[in-house]
């Protein structure tokens, strides 16, 4: 059966309908300022299990618990460290997730078996109203099938979740386009577990020096347990394999053109991810090399625009007949850590240096 889709602009009826489904243990996908979330009652283990089933997500990959005011988290966390308070005052509501020691109220089904819980207070009005109507904290991972790019518009959620969940709230295209920054404040030293639009520099201005988890930049082997268990899985990936080419702009373009030539001999189409500034390297060869599909991810200098378009571009290749995708390495601007991290994971860390 098709999943019910309702438009966010209908307002209160949508919030109340969503809240009622969530209270009864059902699943509702809704927009947030980062990406679309797939919500279920965080205190109901069977709702959390339904989330893992709908996403096809490994059950050791914990869920982020969403709240609509700070009081809501008090029963869920053992204590709030001083540095966490400072971060909450500076960045909540907003795209920052904090990891705390959990209390017994939070089921292990929600935390993937961990003694810590991830908490986020979103700024998006629709997300907050839905949580408020539900009256319970809401576990809400990104509303994609596990391993696929996160959804940044309701159509993406329909593609992945139609028939698997109870309702989808269509709030149009989201603002930021990459998931929240995650900071673990449960140990001695605060540690960034996932980069996002709240950057390391912004965090350090508030609490001083923080570390980035090694797994952000390195491929984590299957045998070690990273701090954010999600890090060990291939993520954000389009259907065709993705390779990143890194180096000087012109050398990168020439390497990508070589790959296209090779693939032309094999009668294969190649997807290219480039910027407004580098697009012409490829378009000017289009007469000879007609086996390329070019997608511009944004302006080289505008990392917010690139983050906003990233998952949309990756998903858009799924409806093109490409056998591989090659992306220029994008590593400029304030969101560079977040963009690099998502692209590297989407590529399974396949990168060619030229
Ligand atoms: P998603 O909700 O799909 O954006 O993914 C949630 C991410 O948060 C995953 O990568 C998890 O590993 C991470 N996460 C959630 N809870 C915890 C926790 N208690 N400790 C460490 N990482 C967490
Ligand atoms: Mg996710």
Outline the fold blueprint.
Layout: E1 4-7, H1 12-23, E2 28-30, E3 37-41, H2 45-55, E4 64-66, H3 82-91, E5 96-101, H4 108-111, E6 116-120, H5 125-134, E7 138-139, H6 154-161, E8 167-170, E9 181-184, E10 191-194, H7 200-207, E11 211-212, E12 242-246, H8 249-265, E13 270-274, H9 279-283, E14 292-296, H10 303-316, E15 324-328, H11 336-346, E16 351-353
Parallel strand pairs: 1-8, 2-8, 4-6, 5-9, 10-11, 12-15, 12-16, 13-14, 13-15
Antiparallel strand pairs: 2-3, 3-7, 4-7, 5-6, 9-10
Helix pairs in contact: 1-5, 10-11
The protein binds adenosine monophosphate (AMP) and magnesium ion.
Magnesium ion binds at residues 141-142, 150.
What does this structure look like?
The strands form two sheets. Strands 1-8-2-3-7-4-6-5-9-10-11 form an eleven-stranded mixed beta sheet, with helices on both faces. Strands 14-13-15-12-16 form a five-stranded parallel beta sheet, sandwiched between helices. It has helices spanning 12-23, 45-55, 82-91, 108-111, 125-134, 154-161, 200-207, 249-265, 279-283, 303-316, 336-346, and strands at 4-7, 28-30, 37-41, 64-66, 96-101, 116-120, 138-139, 167-170, 181-184, 191-194, 211-212, 242-246, 270-274, 292-296, 324-328, 351-353. It is globular. A hairpin with a 6-residue loop joins strand 2 and strand 3. It is α/β, with parallel strands linked by helices and 354 residues long. It binds adenosine monophosphate and magnesium ion. Adenosine monophosphate binds at residues 61-64, 99, 111, 114, 116-118, 141-142, 179, 182, 193, 227-230.
